[in-house]
Amino acid sequence: MNALPQGGSPIDAAFVRRWLDAATTAVDREAAALTQLDSPIGDADHGTNMRRGFVAARTAVEQEPPDTPGGVLVAVGRQLISTVGGASGPLYGTLLRRAGKALGDEPTVTAAQLADALRAGVEGVGQLGGAAAGDKTMLDALLPAVDALARALDAGSDTADALAAAAAAADEGAKATTPMRARKGRASYLGERSIGHQDPGATSSALLMTAFADTAREVGA
Ligand code: ADP
Ligand code: MG
Q: Which ligand 1 atom is the nearest neighbour of the CA of 37?
């Protein structure tokens, strides 16, 4: 009786465009808070960087909408790389371009394919920035998120529940950066003084994962 593939309904270009809308709205709403987090352990520009990148990406995708989920992710990644001056631009750009490329030209993909693609993207972030778990970076939200996503799908969760588990793991991961000492990026210059502040990039990663979860819930994936 179950007509849907395991892991819920397929993910198409419209789904990823909807995610881009939700992500841009969240980044815009939280821009001041992200910049505030980047103030004691950075240069107070993370919210501005993210907003500039996501607004440019949404405009580009609206003007020339790609017709595959991979195409949308690649377009967003490209815009982030070309419009964001900070470290987060190339890192998020790599995440999304790699993930998009991993999805190829398929018009629809499953949640399991999206999970594998995001993992490939997260590995790209690790390769580009040289950071690992525990270094107090965006990877401390992204790694637990892709792990939780794969675990939930393996256990038979539908897309919306699996993405909600990923968002919760990203959020927990972001909060867990507070007691860490930064070993990569601008915050690492502060050494011990980076302890006691939540990492801005891990916080924005949690926002992006929450946008995926919200999108899946809204479309009933
Ligand atoms: P910048 O540090 O150049 O001002 P942003 O403020 O936009 O750029 O982004 C800072 C965030 O980027 C950090 O909070 C951290 O999560 C992430 N980041 C910085 N360097 C790295 C790295 N080498 N690997 C992974 N993430 C990194
Ligand atoms: Mg900064």
A: 14
